[in-house]
Design a protein that fits this description.
The protein contains 20 helices and 30 strands. By secondary structure, the chain is an alpha/beta fold. The structure holds adenosine-5'-diphosphate and iron/sulfur cluster. The site of iron/sulfur cluster has 13 residues, from α9 and α11. Adenosine-5'-diphosphate (ADP) binds next to α12, β15 and α20.
C-alpha cells in the first residue's frame, strides 16, 4: 500500500526504451565487490531491488584492460567471465522487478593499470594529478586511438546487454576520460578534439552517439556528469562550461537521462559529501539548472543523502529533478523505498553521512556500513537486513552496556525472540556515541542511537534499564539471566598512552586540572587558559573535533599528531581536504610527525619522529643503530587534551571470567564480550560485533565468528580469459 502523501515517489517514469517502476535510483557506488565477487555483488545489489529501488547500478565498471585501477576493485566488462559474473547481478535485480544499470568507465590519465600493465590512452599525454606519486602517465591518443576507445565503449555496452543490463551509463564524472577531454586543464590538443568547447566535447558526445546507435533501441543510454569540479579555473565550472556542455550534448539528442553531481576525482568527497561538511541536498542548485536545460522529457537524477521522504518530495516538487538518486541512503537502508511506501518511517535506518562505507573502498577493502551491519554480508553470511531467524530455544539474556554494540546486540537478539534486559549506568542510551554526536558538525551521527532506540521500544521482549548502579560481577551473577553479554565499551587513555610509543607520556595525568580526555571535555570539565594543545594519536574524528571545539571556545589551538596528516583516517572517508580547510579557517596550528616527550604544567615538549640519523652506525661495540637525535621543541600549553588512544573497559568481563566456576551455581550458561570492551575500534566494528554475536547466538562458540563464504578462484576450475584467447578487440569497425 503506497502512502499517498508520498505518491509522487512511486510513479513510474520512462527514459529511452526503459521505464522504472518508481523514482528511487541507486546511483553507481563503489563496493570493492566488482566482477570478482559475483555472489556478494549480486546479493548486495539484489537486496536493494527487493527493498524497492527501481534502478540498481554497479560501481564504476572498467570497459577494457587499458583502464584498470587495481588494487581498488571496480566492476569490469572485459570478457565473457565478467558477463557471467555481472549477469548474476542483473538476474538478482530483475528478480525483484527492477532495472540494472552499469557505469561504463575508462579513466585515461588516471589508470595505474597495476594488474593489466597496459598503457592507458588519454587526451594529452600527461602525468596523473590524482596519483602524482605513482608515476602514472597516459599516452596521447591519435584519431585512431580515439576511435578504438569509442569502440571499447560499444563493445562493453554489447557485453552489458548480454549480461542483462538495462541501462548503460557513461561516466563523465570523477574526471574520467570524457571529462579529461572536456577540461582545459587536461586538453592541450590542437586538432578537432581540442580548443573550443565544441571540440573538447566531441569525444564525449561521440561516445554517447555510438552507444545510441549500437544499443540505444534496447538499452537506455545515460550519463553521470559533474557540472562543477569545485576547483576553479581551467576546470569545469557550473555557470561556465558545465552548463554549456549540458546544452551542447542535450541538443544532440544522445542522452536519455542525466545523473548530476559535483566534485572531481581528486576530491570526490564533494560528491560523496559527508554530513560533517555537506547538508542534505547540497547539490540542489547545480541539478536544478541542468533540469531546466533538458526540459520535461529527459529525466534528471539528483543525489543528496536523501533519507527523509519529505525532502525527497520537496526535491521533486521544486522541479529540481525527477528521480531521487542515492548511494549511501540505499546502503544504510536497502528497504528505504518500501518503508516509505508502507508508511513505516520510524523503521528507516537513516544514513549518518559518516563515509565509513567509502573508507572501505579507499582502503582497497570491501564495503561495510556503520548503520547497516548486514551491508556486504547478504551473500557471504546470508544476512538479510529485515529478516531474522527466530531463536529455536529463546532464553533470557542480560546485556550490560548500551553503547552502539550493546544496543545493536540487544535489538537483534530481541528481533530473534530472546528475552533481553539491556542495562546501563548512564541515564541515556548510546554510550560513547552520545559524546560523538555532540561534536561540532556531528548531529546526524545521533541517528545511530535514535534508530536503535525506536526499534528497542517496539520490542516487547526487550527491557531497557538506564541510570542503574554500575553492575559488578556479583550483580551480574545474581541477576538471573541465562546468558550475559558484556558491552562496557572503552575510555580515552588518561596518561597519554598511544600507538607511537605504547607508553604513558611522562607528566601526563587527566586527574589534574590542566589535562583532559575527550570525555572530560564533553562532560564539561573546565579548560584552563588560552593555549590548548590537542595531542592526537587516534587520527580520525575526535582529534579534529576537539581542536574545533576548543577553537570555537576562543582558544589558541595547536593540534599535534604523530601521523603524516591531521585526521589521517579521514583520507579514507574523503574528509581530509575539508578537515584541513576547517582547521585553517579556525586558525588551528598543526604539527604532524611529532609526539610528546613529556609534559609539565604550561609546557608540552615534543620531538620530531625522524630526528634520528638515516644511517646506521656501530654506536658501541656490538650495538648497531641510528644515532639518536635529541632535539626537543616546546609548545606553550595551558591545557592538554589527550586523544592518544582508547582503552577497553574490560574489568567486569575479566572478573566474570575469573569466577567462571561459579556460573553453574547461578545458572549462567555463558558470558560473552562485544564491541569496544573487546577491542576499541570504530563504531561500525562495535555494531557489527554486536550484530554478529546476536545472529550466531546458538552457534557452538558464539564469541568466535562462524566462517563466511570467500569468493576467489578455486584451483582446477576454468579461467576467463584463458591463455591463447585473442586480445579483446579494439580495432575500429
Ligand atoms: P561500545 O562502542 O562497545 O558499544 P560504549 O563505550 O559506547 O561501547 O558504551 C559502553 C556503555 O557501557 C556505556 O554507556 C557505559 O555507561 C556502560 N557501562 C560500562 N560499564 C558498565 C557497568 N559496569 N554497568 C552498567 N553499564 C556500564
Ligand atoms: Fe551512510 Fe555511514 Fe553507512 Fe556510509 S557507512 S551508508 S555514510 S551510515
Amino acid at each position: 500500500m503506497t502512502n499517498s502523501k508520498y505518491g509522487l515517489l512511486f510513479q513510474p517514469i520512462s527514459f529511452g526504451p526503459k521505464t522504472m517502476r518508481n523514482r528511487f535510483w541507486q546511483t553507481s557506488h563503489c563496493t570493492g565487490f566488482g566482477s570478482e565477487r559475483p555472489g556478494t555483488q549480486a546479493s548486495f545489489r539484489g537486496m536493494k531491488a527487493e527493498g524497492g529501488w527501481a534502478v540498481v547500478c554497479t560501481e564504476f565498471c572498467s570497459i577494457h584492460p587499458e583502464s584498470d585501477e587495481y588494487p581498488w576493485h571496480s566492476a569490469r566488462l572485459w570478457d565473457a567471465g565478467d558477463v557471467i559474473n555481472l549477469g548474476h547481478m542483473c538476474d538478482e535485480v530483475h528478480r525483484h522487478g527492477s532495472l540494472a544499470g552499469v557505469q561504463l568507465w575508462y579513466n585515461g590519465s588516471h589508470s595505474p593499470n597495476l594488474e593489466s600493465r597496459e598503457v592507458p590512452h588519454g587526451v594529452s599525454g600527461l602525468p596523473s594529478n590524482v596519483f602524482p606519486e605513482r608515476n602514472v602517465y597516459d599516452a596521447m591518443s591519435d584519431e585512431n586511438d580515439i576511435k578504438a576507445i569509442i569502440n571499447m565503449y560499444v563493445l562493453a555496452a554489447k557485453r552489458a546487454e548480454e549480461a542483462g543490463f538495462d541501462i548503460v551509463e557513461v561516466s563523465g564524472s570523477d574526471t574520467t576520460l570524457p571529462l579529461q577531454f572536456l577540461e582545459r586543464r587536461y586538453n592541450r590538443r590542437t586538432d578537432r578534439y581540442g580548443g573550443s568547447l565544441q571540440n573538447r566535447a566531441r569525444f564525449y558526445i561521440e561516445i554517447m552517439a555510438a552507444l545510441k546507435r549500437a544499443v540505444g533501441d534496447r538499452l537506455a543510454v545515460t550519463t553521470r556528469f559533474e557540472t562543477d569540479t569545485i576547483n576553479g579555473e581551467i576546470r569545469i565550472q557550473h555557470y561556465d562550461e558545465g552548463l554549456r556542455f549540458v546544452e551542447l550534448m542535450h541538443a544532440e539528442g544522445v542522452c536519455d537521462l542525466w545523473s548530476v553531481k559535483i566534485g572531481d576525482y581528486e576530491e570526490w568527497g564533494e560528491d560523496a559529501g559527508s554530513s560533517r561538511f555537506r547538508r542534505v541536498n547540497w547539490m540542489q542548485p547545480f541539478v536544478l539548472h541542468v533540469k531546466r536545460i533538458v526540459g520535461p522529457k529527459i529525466p534528471v537524477v539528483s543525489n543528496g543523502r536523501f533519507t527523509s521522504p519529505d525532502d525527497m518530495i520537496a526535491a521533486l516538487a521544486s522541479g529540481q529533478c525527477d528521480i531521487i538518486g542515492a548511494a549511501r541512503p540505499s546502503i544504510a537502508d536497502p528497504f528505504l523505498p518500501t518503508k516509505i511506501a508502507e508508511n513505516r518511517l520510524d523503521d528507516i535506518r537513516e544514513c549518518i553521512g559518516c563515509n565509513m562505507c567509502v573508507s572501505r573502498m579507499q582502503q582497497q577493502a570491501l564495503l561495510s556500513c556503520t548503520q547497516n551491519a548486514t551491508a556486504g554480508e547478504e551473500y557471504r553470511r546470508r544476512w538479510h537486513p529485515e529478516k531474522f531467524t527466530q531463536a529455536p530455544n529463546p532464553c533470557s539474556v542480560l546485556v550490560v552496556g548500551a553503547g552502539p554494540a550493546g544496543m545493536e546486540c540487544a535489538m537483534v537478539l530481541g528481533k530473534r525472540g530472546y528475552t533481553v534486559h539491556l542495562r546501563d549506568s548512564a541515564p541515556d542510551l548510546g554510550g560513547h556515541w552520545r559524546d560523538v554526536a555532540r561534536y561540532p558538525r556531528c548531529a546526524e551521527y545521533g541517528r545511530v542511537i535514535s534508530y536503535r532506540q525506536a526499534q528497542l521500544a517496539k520490542l516487547k521482549n526487550v527491557e531497557v534499564h538506564l541510570g542503574i548502579e554500575p553492575m559488578t560481577a556479583e550483580a551480574v551473577l545474581n541477576y538471573g539471566a541465562d546468558k550475559v553479554v558484556i558491552a562496557t565499551g572503552a575510555h580515552w587513555a588518561t596518561d597519554g598512552l598511544g600507538a607511537e610509543t605504547h607508553r604513558p607520556i611522562p607528566g601526563v595525568d587527566a586527574g589534574s586540572a590542566d589535562v583532559l580526555t575527550p570525555e572530560q571535555v564533553m562532560g564539561g570539565k573546565p579548560v584552563p587558559g588560552d593555549d590548548v594543545v590537542v595531542l592526537d594519536g587516534d587520527g580520525y574524528l575526535t582529534g579534529v573535533s576537539m581542536a574545533e571545539t576548543m577553537a570555537l571556545r576562543g582558544k589558541r589551538v595547536t593540534l599535534i599528531t604523530n601521523m603524516n596528516n591531521v585526521a589521517e583516517f579521514s583520507r579514507f572517508t574523503m574528509e581530509l581536504p575539508n578537515n584541513k580547510r576547517m582547521l585553517n579557517e579556525n586558525k588551528v596550528h598543526v604539527m604532524t610527525n611529532h609526539w610528546a616527550h613529556g609534559y609539565s604544567p604550561g609546557t608540552l615538549s615534543l620531538y620530531f619522529l625522524y630526528r634520528d640519523t638515516a644511517g646506521l652506525y656501530e654506536l658501541e661495540p656490538g650495538h648497531w643503530g641510528r644515532r639518536p637525535g635529541t632535539e626537543l621543541k616546546e609548545v606553550p600549553c595551558s591545557a592538554l587534551v589527550l586523544v592518544t588512544s582508547r582503552v577497553s573497559n574490560v574489568q567486569l568481563y575479566r572478573e566474570l571470567e575469573r569466577r567462571r566456576v561459579e556460573w553453574a551455581r547461578y545458572e549462567i550458561q555463558a558470558v560473552y564480550r562485544i564491541g569496544d570492551c573487546h577491542a576499541p575500534r570504530h563504531a561500525l566494528n562495535a555494531i557489527f560485533d554486536g550484530h554478529r554475536l546476536a545472529r550466531e547466538f546458538e552457534s557452538p562458540h558464539p564469541q568466535h565468528p562462524l566462517p563466511f563464504i570467500r569468493e576467489r578462484q578455486v584451483w582446477g576450475h576454468a579461467t576467463y580469459p584463458k591463455l591463447g584467447d585473442p586480445r579483446p578487440p579494439v580495432e575500429v569497425p
